[in-house]
Amino acid sequence: MTAPNDRYLTLERLRTMIEADEVDTVVLAFTDMQGRLQGKRLHGRYFLDVALEHGTEGCNYLLAVDVDMNTVEGYEISSWQRGYGDMEFVPDWDTLRRLPHLPATAMVQCDLVWLDHAPVVQSPRTVLRAQLEHVAERGMTALAGTELEFIAFNSTYEEAHRSRYRDLNPVNQYNVDYSILGTTRVEPLLRGIRNHMYAAGMDVEGAKGECNFGQHEIGFLYAEAMATADNHSVYKTAAKEIAAQHGRSLTFMAKYDQREGNSCHIHLSLRGTDGDVVFWDDDAGARSPLYDHFVAGVLATMADFTLIYAPNINSYKRFAAGSFAPTTIGWGLDNRTCAVRLVGHGPSARMENRVPGGDVNPYLALAAMIAGGLHGIDQELKLEPELVGNAYTSDDHARVPQTLHAAREAFNGSAIARAAFGDAVVDHYTNMADVELAAYGAAVTDWELFRGFERL
């Protein structure tokens, strides 16, 4: 991977900016299991004088905690018995960029290795890198785009926490899907995110309103899969930081309320390493056999890999009929009721996976789609007939797993998953599901209190 454009920084440029006091903080970050940026802020001079040569480390529990950062049992790589040692952060200098919404700050995204320099195979970026290497072995590259939706509120994160995230005031009070007026109402925030992310090296397409109250989407141009995942992680964190600077908050959780959830539709295609289009046959004016095999593989592994696409208890609240979130494992041409939607032709031919929500880890989801697609290519799987009409009422197709427990069982028992990712990765993310299930099973919810406090 090389830096996508000249808005990224070179190491020499960063050195000059630190010496000129234009940058005084360098963030070294990686993406954890939950899709969050974790890492350290280094003083610019320390970065140049020490960290640049000697590196930096972080506790290996960062890939073995729950969303509340609690140490939990069941992870092979990290435990009290193993002493919670360190992992080394290895900067990928092609990701070096300014964070213009923060004063005098630059960021570089990192891979994780053990102190003997062996890769941490459970790290999301490493999981995706392994699948991209399989693509490269076949003389191809993967291009991807992620479409993240969020709901924004006229409340700070502190106010939202004090109110226990209930009865928040959304930035729009009605459905603003494609509404220019609706987006104008919140344009200072949307414009701030768009422009800051462009300055940080991302190719911003635009913003549009969505269906839920206060729901919006900011789109970015497709890129090589690793760059897309890196940008996704930076954007998701930065959007929250910029919202906080505006005295507002926003959430990417898959299902905030009973209305439409936040999706993360993922577009993916393969190209030859020389740029050749491999998903389309120009002579026939139709999809190529390789494209059909790839889509067939994604469909064949959809149930097994749903845990990756929908990693949390809340993820499964999004799968409801008539919600624009899929319930049926099938494909259709420009059909938004299906799990997989095929769009475009020629160089723009691509598949859209509509299963992931806004809480998805982009590295893992892209790795799962690529692994499934390569399985379809290697096995020359035949693509089933197109699902025409309303997929929600289709009775002859398999269904997306409806609970985290069902998805956990499918992933853990999947021979395809173990062959594609290895036992260490499958066991690690199965345990992540077990931790989430145990935490939810022990919780007393507001629904239970309202239902049972007086009447039961």
Structure keywords:
single chain, 456 residues, alpha+beta, Creatine Kinase, Chain A, domain 2, 2 domains, six-stranded mixed sheet, globular
Question: In brief, what are we looking at here?
Answer:
The chain has 456 residues and is an alpha+beta fold.
Write up this protein.
The chain has 456 residues and is α+β, with helices and mostly antiparallel strands. The chain folds into 2 domains: 109 residues, Ubiquitin-like (UB roll); 319 residues, Creatine Kinase, Chain A, domain 2. The chain contains 14 helices and 17 strands. Strands 7, 8, 9, 10, 11, 12, 15, 16 and 17 form a 9-stranded mixed β-sheet that branches. Strands 1, 2, 3, 4, 5 and 6 form a 6-stranded mixed β-sheet that branches. The chain has a two-stranded antiparallel ribbon with strand order 13-14. Helix 6 crosses helix 7 and helix 11 packs antiparallel against helix 13. The chain is globular and about 65 Å long. The model has no long low-confidence stretch (mean pLDDT 96).
The overall pLDDT average reads 96
Total domain modules: 2
What is the CATH architecture descriptor of the largest domain? 2-Layer Sandwich
Strand segment tally: 17
Tell me the CATH superfamily of the largest domain: Glutamine synthetase/guanido kinase, catalytic domain
CATH hierarchy, class of the largest domain: Alpha Beta
Q: Whole-Å distance between the termini?
A: 60 Å
